[in-house]
Amino acid sequence: MAVYTVHEPRPRRNGDAAPPERYAFVRDGFYLWAFLLGPLWMLWHRLWLVLGLYVVAMGAIEAGMWALGLSGAVKFAVMVLIAILVGCEAGTLRRFGLRRWTEHGIVVADDREEAERRFFDRWTGARVASPPLAREPLSRPVAPHQDVIGLFPQPQSPS
User: Fold this and answer.
1) From CA 122, how far away is CA 105, in angstroms rounded?
2) Nearest 10 degrees: CA dihedral of 52, 57, 62, 66?
3) By C-alpha distance, which of 59, 13, 21 is closest to 39?
4) How many alpha carbons fall within 13 Å on the CB side of residue 63?
5) Is the dihedral of CA 41, 86, 88, 46 positive or negative?
6) DSSP state letter for 21
7) pLDDT digits (tens, 9 = 90+) for 126-135
């Protein structure tokens, strides 16, 4: 299951709330397209500031590696590691791009469509049917003991 954060765009000038179609659901996890085509992925998602910082940082890293006289294999390894970092942090980069939007919460779902359905059902107050429990609880709750300190108390005989 994936974790999604839900973001609402800022209200328009006339004060109307944004329609539900404009809400953004950002998945937390690894983004393959951000790993493979980082700058194009940033352009696609309109992350202008992130793209600018990425270009400046990559230029500085390239210049530093050139000044150090590193081999082609080391340069390639560094670029792959940076691409992996971009792929892993792509969700965070998208949330940074939506920093002026209002975050409405977190939804756990198998895919984006189910996340949207769960969020809007909860938002509108509709009752979502939960799957039945597969088994009974393993143990019944135990009343707390007043003299217990620590995680694993030792049994004591009554005096």
Assistant:
1) 11
2) 130
3) 59
4) 6
5) negative
6) G
7) 655 555 444 4
pLDDT (tens digit per residue) in 90-143: 999 999 999 888 888 899 999 889 998 998 888 787 655 555 444 445 444 555
Q: Which residue, 23, 31, 29, is CA-closest to 6? A: 23
**Average predicted confidence (pLDDT) for the chain:** 83
Tokens of 15: 């004060």
Residue 81: CB partners within 8 Å, gap ≥ 6?
none
What is the amino acid identity at position 151?
Answer: L
User: What does the domain layout of the chain look like in residue ranges?
Assistant: 2-124
- pLDDT score, position 138: 47
Q: Are 139 and 125 in contact (CB under 8 A)?
A: no
